[in-house]
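Repro case for the chain-ordering regression, as requested:
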Amino acid sequence: MELRVIDKTDDELRLEIAGEDHTFMNVLKGVLLELEAVSAATYDVNPEQSGGQTDPVLSIKTAGGADPLDVLADAADRVEGQTDAFRDAFAAAA
Amino acid sequence: MSAEFDVEFIERDDRSARFLVRGLTPAFANGIRRAMIADVPTLSIDTVRFIENSSVMFDEMIALRLGLIPLTTPLADYEIGETVTVALDVEGPATAYSGDLTTSDGLVEPADKNIPIIKLNQGQRLEFEADAVLDRGKEHAKHQGGVSVGYRHLQRVEVIGDRGEFDEEEPHILRGVIETEDGELVATDEFDNDLTNRYPGKEVSVTDVPGAFVFHVETDGSLSVEELVDRAAESIGDRAAELKDAVSV
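-- result from build under test --
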């Protein structure tokens, strides 16, 4: 997973995440949108006029002065927590 | 938001299972489904060195067929890109089956023994050595562990009254799993997918249960259903951990 920051301001972040596809990006986006500090989050795997860019570009806009990078770290942490919880629940049932 | 999941098995077989998960978001359910198909690696024959092929097929055609034979995959022992040597030597008149393959690792063997590779006539012979490589379904469909993976919403069926006396009797077809009013989970094939068989003469309402997904998972035999699901969730978790480390430097 290679990251490349395209744009970064106090409340906005555009980040290219190389080597990922919808599988992970949509999960991440779903979790980001549930966060209080996020006012907008989306990703695009084929931005217009990008000349064939196929690595997803994640865009985050935060509210209330939160740093988008911190928010992203928080979201990634939650995804990890969710997968762990899912694996435990599945192992318990199996 | 705390992640509280509840998993319940409805059907379970050697290679397939149907289970209900509560507390999932649609994004997470789809992530797991996609990861099961494209991200959980399996072993599959990739390079073949022919020693003798006097059969009626070209080397390339046989190599393609070999790639499609599912091999049991001990995921704990292999990393992506690592290989196992596989060999076969059959002389006609006979049919070469997947069960004739021998491997360098006892844990790796054809998941099915009765897949015909090619029929050999008198005097024809097939002998080769091949490398099976561990890779993901994203790379080539022969590496897919899950062959039929999907989910549906759990549907809640409630009786809201009797069917009107002069209403026409129409079938009410439903597929998947329903939850009855007393919380019982019933696969729809138990009543031939027709709700009027289970609730004759009743008017029922059918609603999706939010956050409850019924997964149907079938593997090609290279992995068990349990391992496939667990590895799929693990692969998403690993990527999240990697991202977290990368951004919180």
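Ordering looks correct now. The two ends of chain A are 32 Å apart (CA to CA).
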